[in-house]
Every structure is written in structure tokens, then in C-alpha cells.
Amino acid sequence: MSVRHLLAGAAWLASCAAFAQIPPPIGAELARAKVPPEAVALLVAEVGHSQAPRLSHQSANPMQPASVMKLVTTFAALDTLGPAFTWNTPVYLDSKGRPKPGDKVFHGDIYLKGQGDPKLVVERLWLLMRRIQGLGIQKIDGDIVIDRSAFALAPVDPGRFDGEPLRPYNAAPDAFLVNYSTLVFTFTPDAAAGVARIQTDPPLAGVKLPEQVPLSGGACNDYRSALAADFSDPLRPRFAGSYASACGERSWPVAYADPGQFAARAVHGMWLSLGGGLTGSVRYGNTPPHVLERGPALTVKSPALAEVIRDINKYSNNVMAQQLYLTLGRGNTGSDAQSPASFAASNAFVQSWWAQRFGASDAPLLENGSGLSRQESISANALGQLLQAAYASPTMPELMASLPIAGQDGTLKRSNTSTSAHLKTGSLSNVLAIGGYVLAPSGKRYVVVAMVNHPNASAARPAIEALLDWTAND
Q1: Torsion angle defined by CA atoms of residues 292, 293, 297 and 298, in that order, rounded to the nearest 10 degrees
Q2: pTM exceeds cut of 0.85
Q3: 338 CB contacts (<8 Å, ≥6 apart)?
């Protein structure tokens, strides 16, 4: 027998020995997925108990966690900012003249000072514009200025991560982030007219948006491909295909092709849609010191952090997670006097928080706090330690409520397991991960962490479900 065959045999025996340390139902599914045991980290430990974990396989090895890293960001935020924390978006008026009684014209510039609100969605942008009109302003004889200076971020290519710039998960953070920099096209069939009506939100000034597309018969299969969308021209998105009437009403979110201009066009478009007048433009710029000294004319508050992290964790919203992560680097006062946020400042903050909470060893490596990264890593032991601490903390109910429920909602809605579990999920090409809690019929609750880093990671989902079932069957 050749040396090559001897080495291959030794590797096979080592693999078998490693699989022998993993419970058979899980090992069998990993073998079926052709995922070797050295590409997997597993941890199962009873909540609140210090004895040895029920299962520990490569749990000290740093692994790429994908979106499971959001557990670090959201628990750090709950632990330091508190579940009632909100983001303020103040509006400042810089009057250049005395208004005439009753003419509802503001002579001067209006400044919208973004401070990182992750959920300035269409409805809340509408409310902000209505609040301005509530000051007795119907026409602005000047400019609307969007101040994004709270974040110090270099421009990024939205397709830098995976070459998919129009996928909403690739949207970049912004101090004045509007609707996740995403357009939402809603298609509603009108059988009598033979078309699907298209509602687009938010309205964008200067952009010709399609209003309808022909209806077609047949089954509702890949309706997005059938629409033959062309988003190459940011000023004129088009649908050259058709929409199957069998699809009913559907919504398609698409990241705007010119993200740098999205907020300005959305603010301008919303103002015009409410009947507002504007003689100048909507532009980006800093709020002058003398305007800041006068204080805001009004302030729009975000939903509380406890609500925001539900969107982050249940639906794995990357840009919201990055907004929150950047906020951590600014501290917890919400004051505009803070230094501009940066990922470097947030990394330093979270590392300091981790050292105080868990000790300096086994700290995670973070880049943007969302898991949309090839640099971020954490061990299963570290995640398990965090989940144990979170369960014992006063903010446990808020974190638990933010996690997807297996088989019921969020990213776990289509899960096949019947196990009672609250779990954060994560997936990238070559990465599959979960982290959270499983409640067994015995009444015991377990911390469960699993991370797969391998080209066949996506095929390991049955192994993850086998792990959940094995955990519950205690």
C-alpha cells in the first residue's frame, strides 16, 4: 500500500473518530451533507448551570458566525443603552426673513439632522414632513438640508461584498438612513384593466417610476424574473415583462441604484407628495453652529430599542444592525455633541464592554456588527457565554422576544423542526449558523450554538434541525 493511501486511511479514521464525538443523528446528517467534523463547532449547555455542557465540539475554535453575530450587537446595546433607548432626529430652522401672517411660507433653510435612526421608514418620514407642516409651513423659500455628519464613514460600493448591489441586505449605513435606502414596489393585479398597478414607496423626486405592467396568465413562479426589471438607470427603473395574475399582491424591495442620492430624493418626494412647496433644493450639508445653538424646532423619536432589535434579529436586517453598532461607538447619551460614529470607535467600545462583562480572553472579532463580513469571528464558547449572561440579565425578555421562533416567524418561519426554540440564524456562502435557546419538554432550557464553515454549509440544515431535536430530547 502506498504512503498516499496510508495517509488517506489515517485521515478517514480521524474523521470517524471526530464524528464519534458528535451524537449519531447529527453526525449522520453532517456526513450526508459531506461536511467534515472539523468544519463544525457545536455547543449545548443547560441555562443557568455551571456543569460541563451536554455537547461541546470544537467550541473553543473561532468561526465565522454570519448573522448570528447580531446577538453580540443587540445584547451589547440592551446591556449599555437599555431597552427604552431611542434615536432622535431633530429639525432646525434657519430663518432668513420675517414670515408674513398667514402665508405659510418659511423664508430660510430647514435642517434635518440625522443621528443614526435605524427605522426612519416611509411612514415615519411622512410623519416628519407632517410635523414640519404642523409648524405652519407649507412652502420653503430656501433649501432642505440633510445633515449626515453624525457618522464618519467612507463611501462604499454596495456590491463590494458579493456583487449584488441591488439586494437590500447590502445597503450601507447612514446617519440619515431613509427606508433602508430601499424602494418597495407593490404589484396589485387589476384584472379588468389587464394590468398590475405598481405602487412605489417612498416617492422619489426626479425619478420616473413605472405605474403598471401587463398581466399574464399561468402559475405564479419566479415573478421577479418575469417582470424583466431594468434598474440600471436610477432615474427611470423599468419593467419590460409581465406579472402573473395568479401571484395576487406582492411586494418587491430593491436597493436604490444610486444610494448616495436616495435620502435627498425621498425627502423631496415626500414633501412634494404632501403638497409642500420648495423654491430651493434638497441637499446634504452640516448644520451651522449658530443654528444648533438655537435648539431644534421639533424632534422625531424612533421606536424604542426593544422594538428595533426585533426587526434586527427576527428578519436579520443588516443595515439596522450596523446603525445600532455605530450608535454604540457614540455612547449612550443621544447628544449631538458626541464625536462622529465610526466602525473603529464601535469596535473599541464593544471590545471594552466584552472585557468588562466576560474577561479579555475569547473576545469576538468584529468588523461591522452585522455578520455581513468575512472578517468577523467568534467561538461557540463565547456565544454560549453571552447567551448564558443574557438569560440572567434584566433585559432577557427583550432579547428573547427579538429572536425568531422555530416554525413560526422571522427567518425560522419555514423551519421543519417541531422543537420549541428561540434562535438567531445566520447564513452566507460557505457559512451556516444558529445561536439561541431550546426549551425541552422536560422543562429544562438549553443554550444552543452551531456554526458550519464549509463549501457545503447550506446542505447542513438537516444537521442543525437534528441538533435541535436531540437537544430537546433530554
Answers
A1: 60
A2: yes
A3: 150, 330, 331
340 and 456: one domain?
yes
Q: 195 and 109 share a domain?
A: no
Q: Give the three-state DSSP class for 431.
A: strand
Torsion region of 430: left, alpha or beta (phi above 0 gives left; psi -120 to 50 gives alpha): left
CA–CA distance, 75 with 281 (Å, rounded to integer): 41
Residue 101 lies in a domain: yes
Q: CB of 22 within 8 A of CB of 37?
A: yes
**354 domain-assigned:** yes
Q: Provide the residue range defining the domain that includes 206.
A: 168-258
Set of cell numbers at residue 334:
443621544
DSSP 8-state symbol, 331: -
The pLDDT tens digits of the residues spanning 128-171 come to 999 999 999 999 999 999 999 999 998 888 888 888 999 999 99
Tell me, yes or no, whether 216 lies in a domain.
yes
Q: Using CA atoms, how far apart are residues 291 and 306, in angstroms rounded to an integer?
A: 32
Tell me the three cell numbers of residue 349. Answer: 467600545
The three three-digit cell numbers of residue 248, written as one number = 395576487
Q: What angle do CA 50, 55, 61 make, to 5 degrees?
A: 95
Q: Which run of H or E residues covers position 432?
A: strand 431-439
Cell triple for residue 436?
439561541
How long is the chain?
Answer: 474
453: number of Cβ within 10 Å: 22
